[in-house]
Predict the structure of YcjX family protein.
Amino acid sequence: MSPPQWVATLAAMIDRLEDLFAQRINLGVTGLQQAGKTVFITSLVHNLLRADQAAQRSPLRNFDVFDQGRLVAATLRHDTNATVPQFPYTQAVAALTGQQPHWPARTEGISRIRLDIRYRRGDSLIGTAARWLGLDEAVLQLDIVDYPGEWLVDLPMLGQDFEAWSAAMLRQARQGARAALARDWLACIGERGSGQPHDEEWAARAAALYTEYLRRCAAAGLRYLQPGRLLTPAELKGAPVLRFCPLPAPDGAAKRDSLHAAFAAKYRDYQESVIRAFYQRHFAGISRQIVLVDVLTALNAGAEVFDDMSAALAAILQSFDHGRNGLLQWLTGRGIDRVLFAATKADHVVRGDRIHLEHLTQRMLHVLDESNRIKAAAGVKVEAIASVRCTDDMRRSDTGREILLGRRQGDAADTPLDPGAIPLDFPPPWDSFKYRFWDFQPRADSAWRYSGFPNIGVPEALNYLLGDHLT
Ligand SMILES: Nc1nc2c(ncn2[C@@H]2O[C@H](COP(=O)(O)OP(=O)(O)O)[C@@H](O)[C@H]2O)c(=O)[nH]1
Ligand SMILES: [Mg+2]
């Protein structure tokens, strides 16, 4: 072998070794509609891509591998033959950093983003061993999937048959604020017995009225809405599999060609070809999980919405019990060893309240994970975060009270504001308080585009979710 060839072979071997040492994390970003998934992914990716060790004030400060000067560079990995659309990272950053900064558009379908994080080995045992082999640098491959939160709420449906699901949905539709929103749909299915012969045109009308009811619920802040594909159908828009809705049980056994039998068949089809396929394909390999919870919006909306959101989250988390077949083990299953529960939009409350927001989320999790399944299966941490921080902390000059400086929708400029306080008890007292938190708009700050997004707690979240793979 001539020397250049010999060198090339050695280089190739080292490359292979590097592959061997390359680590991969599938990060699951879980959360109901509007919880902040898309903004979190955008912020995380942008801040890693823009990482600059020389920057005086980096949004990655407190990310250990960055603070230790070991983060070399993160790059987007484009796979040419991917069958999943690319996460619209460029559009999301453009929205947040354009002339008139605004929040990214709502998520209509599934997408994926892959990052290679190149870093220098540290002084850990593995790091030292790798360096000894001549591998001073290593790559962590990070895969993240984004999807509409509406689809997540379908998960509990896998554990119910059409009859049980219908009964639960009908009960729900007759309660509280939902009753008025469901009136037209309830009248429609009331007119026609479930035992009547199936008619696809009628099915389409009933499904449309049911979808309208779900839409109105979503607008009112309610989140326990199934099936999620009726709200966000993506590629299934107009597909016959979506032409069904809950039905009252027929008197006696359902005949084979009845409405009830036809809807039950579609329900089974939906379970298998929509829900199961989605989770199997995108969640099976997840090893780390961040569950985003928008506690503040739920507090704002009042007891009914707060309870509804808690119930939706609890149902999703509990339904992991159905992972007997191994499909739904993505939250606490074998693979997942760390779960971070993050209360999002922490920039909506004053600094002193962020710890109370964490406490509230902690107590909420305690109720959601009643059987301690998650805690027993994985490491769990709770944090209050803001992926894109839109407010500054200030104090009033007269009283010394903490306030926020930020711009709400419609405000011409930054405004000093005194937001509501976080309740110290759980469940939150509803009679004595009216919670009031505002939504803030992203700022027009050119540094956001070039240096990354200011945030609260994202580097700490990364330490927990990725840190042990960056040694
Ligand atoms: N102030 C602030 N608002 C946020 C933040 N993250 C999300 N939001 C708000 O929450 C909305 C929903 O966020 P998004 O990421 O689209 O939620 P998704 O449905 O879970 O993907 C955004 O449009 C913002 O109004 C944040 O870090 N700070
Ligand atoms: Mg989204």
Remarks:
- The radius of gyration is 25 Å.
